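Quick one: structure tokens for this chain, please?
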Amino acid sequence: MSILQPQSNPCLPHLINTTKSLQYPAASPTMVHLRPPLSSLLLLFAAVAIASSTAISISQQFKEAPKFYNAAECPHTYIDYDTDTLTAYDDSAVHVAMTLDATYIRGSMAAILSVLQHSSCPQNIIFHFVTSASSDTSLLRATIATSFPYLKFKVYRFEDSFVAGLISTSIRSALDCPLNYARSYLANILPPNVRKVVYLDSDLVLVDDIAKLAATPLGNDSVLAAPEYCNANFTFYFTPSFWSSPSLSLTFANRKACYFNTGVMVIDLHRWRAGDYTRKIEEWMELQKRMRIYELGSLPPFLLVFAGKIAPVDHRWNQHGLGGDNFRGLCRDLHPGPVSLLHWSGKGKPWVRLDAERPCPLDVLWAPYDLLKPQFSFDS
């Protein structure tokens, strides 16, 4: 299946230009050279301009994943569900939200497979995929349905205009993609009868049952849960202008604010809506447009709103940073302790490094979940 990736899109960091140069026959001595009319030249220039800005078709075909079945002890779900309609909420279902685009489709496929493979009740999992309204949503939906014909899922179109005007440039262009901010709008995008959702990035794999993560208690008032890393230098995530401001520096007063990674979160959408937290995040983004208070894309607004207020999750559920830093993407080791989820956050992605035959040692743990068909096996 061909995935269309716009070459001019700054959200696509790992494209290889496969456009072949146009070849024209060499002029022979007997060939008559006519000067084309101006209208023809204008049409030609327009065609070249369009071709240079439109999508490059990169052949990516994926294998069909095996079907996974519930264990005998799994509760039966009573959900009238198809790809277009979700008419009931069932407490026995696990809701998983992910963004979906052509750039990271390969990572998304691996993540989905890992979730199903390690689940005790895979037939009780419902996926909610958020795509950019400017993407080929039907093609992305068909890609998922072809490899996972039994999957319960729904696709939602996210209007880039909701957030495009609020985005400030960050240290890496991939972080500036509007779809990267869709996690802030899940409460507006998903059906109101979905109360709790597990949000997952596309550059990770699970090696444990996601139902354990989904069952994380949120206490009486926490809106979300995520692993916290209180040993990280929290001041790093904000600029000197932020910390030197008498008013802004008091943002975290009376809060034990710690860094957390927003690529793995358990979110209570009812509490999010009741607290209007999307608007609170937008307010910090609006301030960022007026004065530079952070550098790292969609993460700092989450920290400003939630750091010190979230429910804890064991670190095993986000062994993050395996993609290295945001500049070089160097290899990294696992954090000490058990592992339930491997997360290649950072610049380096395992499929890119594997294709380049320059993998990091831990990239081999991602490879078994890769559903990409080898090119020589593509159907004619």
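The longest strand covers residues 125-132.
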